[in-house]
Design brief:
Strand order of the largest sheet of chain A: 6-7-8-3-9-10-12-11
Strand content of chain A: 15-25%
Keywords (chain B): ATP-binding, Nucleotide-binding, Transport
Helix content of chain A: 25-40%
Family (chain B): Belongs to the ABC transporter superfamily.
Strand order of the largest sheet of chain B: 6-7-8-3-9-10-12-11
Largest sheet of chain A: 8 strands, mixed
Protein name (chain B): Dipeptide/oligopeptide/nickel ABC transporter ATP-binding protein
Largest sheet of chain B: 8 strands, mixed
InterPro entries (chain B): AAA+_ATPase, ABC_transp_ATP-bind, ABC_transporter-like_ATP-bd, ABC_transporter-like_CS, Oligopep_ABC_C, P-loop_NTPase
Radius of gyration of chain A: 21 Å
Shape of chain A: globular
Oligomer: heterodimer
Largest interface: A-B, 56 and 54 residues
Organism (chain B): Mangrovihabitans endophyticus
Order of helices and strands of chain A: HEEEHEEHEHHHHHEHEHEEHHHEEH
Structural class of chain B: alpha/beta
Number of helices of chain B: 10
Number of helices of chain A: 14
Distance between the termini of chain B: 31 Å
Number of strands of chain A: 12
Chain lengths: ~350, ~350
């Protein structure tokens, strides 16, 4: 009933994907700002976010509630209401500018070029229609095909995402599926038009750990087969370590550290990333005491001046002239490695990590 | 642990390390409407079915398992929010499984519960002072006039500003609300706290703050914990002993290091291997990988014999015929499996 394999094939796949990484980016976000005017003031949800992602690669966006990770990804799909959100900057998908597109143009873009998997399959599937109907609708919205052809496609997709008995299951209602199967059905629906860009917003957070493992394997498999670009939003650093090639860590609406997974989790450069690592209890080795980050994340109505993290940072006194409070650092390479960037004034952060943080980690 | 001086609800002093709480063949079956005319063939969800557990004074017992394994029902049985179908819940030797509300009173004070959701477990119309103060008065823990001072002392103990006792729950963040819930539990001076997923709704950095608080309270007050969580890392960090549940039964139980280092039951092994481990990205060797297929069967109609057999790669005919008993496989470590053997490749 169980396949027991080692992790070696995954490492090989990762290396193969890394080779293709020099290709032109499929998704390019530059200087993205998303703001929501409210009765209490302006909510600055995303402030000047830039990143790019080529086909065949997985980028994990990591951050806590209110860091802007979901808001920025919804902007990539054009899901914000123009009446309530102010969006500036540029989002290019396959060379095409997404910001400012009409709702009509967005409809033909969503699902075909880019698709999204949400956290809660319970609320993103309609309880009144069969799973098959919902997949067929997604397919027929973009293609002039007969119902019969669409149903065949729905069965094919359910089979591809590992639903047993797809011919029978296609006529089931969502409540007849378990949580893991609903998430598989959601993935089938997202992929039915072969999108090149897949955004997965906490797709496994609501699932049990053994089911989560199945879904992570499925997403990895599908990406290898279809060669798509995947943005994976999560707060779980363990999931990141398993699935991502690159990480972008967000705090209070800005990217504060970015780079390959081994670098950002292995030798992180930003004090916030250090704090995250020291907050996660280890599964192996000698249990080490947790060193949580003091305080709470800031309100997006009043983001602190300078570096948004400075009120909670234990290293701000090591930066001269109070610069952390007065000057927002740029996202720059802080070591000899140009692919690993961080938004922090701290001098030689790699040295500080080795001497101050590394010994405290398990 | 300072429990050597503690006294029981009945006034008898209890010894350090003596069993504080014992669950004996505990079962909770819920009736659900079944098939048949007028739904008369009633079915029963066997949410908890034959659980034996022991918690000693000052000890922390972790309870892990996936949705539907019965861990939250167990929490509600221990705190007697539910009356079990059969079995015993012995608190300091007294069976409290079927006591009336009135008889339960002295025990209610000593066994407290912390909930998962800091948003729905606090009354939004009451100030924090009222919420914690009510707990004090209900259990007769303060004299007239001493209430405000004790409330403020409790708030300070859980790391909140004592001046904030006149604020409402919505004025606090999720982590702070969880601290209010902890202060309310501490108001009763409990001997045991049942914490049902106390940190799962919190962000990582806040989660670590609350974990450290719970650890400090345990150390300083010598409170025993039944700590329920689905996050195996969190449980490993906090607990002395860990029990793994599957479909209403305990399948394995043992000291923390033994259970994580050399799990005996195939389900424990699969569970541990499924947890995504951050250590991989930091250059640690990958652990072995077991992938279970399918989902947990329905607790209305659980498989015969060993309940895990339908997803187990070791299953033989005997597993369907005979329910494996919990047997000691290593010192202090029990597992319910006909083919148990330790697996050490999961540890680094």
């Amino acid at each position: 009933m169980t396949d027991q394999t080692t992790r070696a094939p995954q490492t090989v796949a990762r290396a193969a994907r890394a080779k293709r990484a020099n290709e032109e980016p499929y998704l390019e976000v530059s200087d993205l700002h998303v703001q929501f005017p409210t009765a209490d003031g302006l909510v600055r949800a995303v402030q000047g976010l830039s990143y790019s992602l080529p086909l065949g690669r997985t980028l994990a966006i990591v951050g806590e509630s209110g860091s802007g990770k979901s808001v920025s990804s919804m902007a990539v799909l054009g899901l914000h209401d123009a009446k309530t959100a102010r969006i500036s900057g540029s989002i290019k998908v396959g060379g095409r500018e997404i910001t400012g597109l009409s709702e009509r143009a967005l409809e033909s873009y969503r699902g075909v070029d880019a698709a999204m998997i949400f956290q809660d399959p319970q609320s993103s599937l309609h309880p009144y229609f069969t799973v098959g109907d919902q997949i067929m609708e997604a397919y027929r919205t973009h293609r002039r095909v007969s119902k019969r052809a669409a149903k065949a496609r729905a069965v094919e997709m359910l089979d591809r995402v590992g639903i047993p008995n797809p011919r029978r299951r296609v006529d089931n209602y969502p409540h007849e599926f378990s949580g893991g199967m609903r998430q598989r059905a959601m993935i089938a629906m997202a992929l039915v038009n072969d999108p090149k860009l897949l955004i997965a917003d906490e797709p496994t957070t609501a699932l049990d750990v053994t089911v989560q493992a199945q879904i992570l394997d499925l997403i990895t498999d599908l990406q290898r087969d279809f060669g798509s670009a995947v943005v994976f939003i999560t707060h779980d650093l363990g999931v990141v370590a398993e699935i991502a090639d690159d990480i972008l860590v967000m705090y209070a609406g800005s990217a504060i550290e970015q780079g390959p997974v081994e670098k950002v989790l292995g030798t992180p450069l930003h004090p916030y990333s250090w704090g995250l690592l020291e907050s996660v209890p280890a599964l192996t080795g000698e249990p080490a005491p947790l060193h949580p980050i003091p305080g709470t994340p800031p309100s997006l109505l009043a983001v602190p001046s300078g570096c948004a993290f400075h009120p909670r940072c234990e290293f701000r006194d090591r930066v001269p002239q109070d610069r952390c409070r007065t000057l927002k650092p740029d996202l720059l390479a802080r070591t000899a490695d140009p692919g690993h960037t961080s938004r922090c004034h701290l001098h030689e952060p790699d040295q500080v990590f080795q001497t101050d943080i590394s010994p405290r980690l398990p | 642990m300072t429990t050597a001086t503690a006294t029981s609800a009945s006034g008898v002093p209890i010894k350090d390390g003596a069993p504080l709480l014992e669950l004996d063949d505990l079962a909770m079956h819920f009736k659900v409407r079944g098939d048949g005319l007028l739904g008369r063939k009633n079915k029963r969800v066997q949410a908890v079915d034959g659980v034996d557990l022991t918690v000693r004074a000052g000890e922390t017992l972790g309870l892990v398992g996936e949705s539907g394994c019965g861990k939250s029902t167990t929490a509600r049985l221990i705190t007697r929010l539910l009356e079990p179908t059969h079995g015993e819940i012995r608190y300091q030797g007294h069976d409290i499984a079927h006591l009336s509300e009135r008889q339960l009173r002295p025990y209610r004070r000593e066994i407290q519960l912390i909930f998962q959701d800091p948003y729905s477990s606090l009354n939004p119309r009451h100030t924090v002072g009222t919420i914690v103060g009510t707990a004090l008065r209900t259990h007769g823990m303060v004299s007239r006039g001493g209430e405000t001072a004790r409330v403020q002392e409790l708030l300070e103990m859980v790391g909140l500003n004592p001046e904030h006792d006149n604020r409402y729950p919505h004025e606090f963040s999720g982590g702070q609300r969880q601290r209010i819930g902890i202060a309310r539990a501490l108001a009763a001076r409990p001997k045991i706290i049942v914490a049902d997923e106390p940190v799962s709704a919190l962000d990582v950095s806040i989660q670590a703050q609350v974990m450290n608080l719970l650890e400090e309270l345990r150390r300083e007050l010598g409170i025993a914990f039944v700590f329920i969580a689905h996050d195996l890392g969190v449980v490993r960090h906090f607990c002395d002993r860990v029990a793994v549940m599957y479909l209403g039964r305990v399948v394995e139980q043992g000291p923390r290091d033994e259970l994580y280092g050399a799990p005996q039951h195939p389900y424990t092994q699969a569970l541990l291997s499924a947890v995504p481990d951050i250590a991989v990205a930091r250059g640690m060797p990958p652990k072995s990988r077991i992938r279970l297929e399918g989902d947990v069967p329905s607790p209305v109609d659980p498989p015969s014999g060993c309940r895990f057999r339908t997803r187990c790669w070791k299953a033989q005919d005997v597993c369907a015929q005979k329910t494996p008993p919990l047997e000691e496989k290593a010192p202090g470590q029990v597992a319910a499996c006909h083919f148990a053997e330790p697996m050490t490749s999961l540890a680094a």
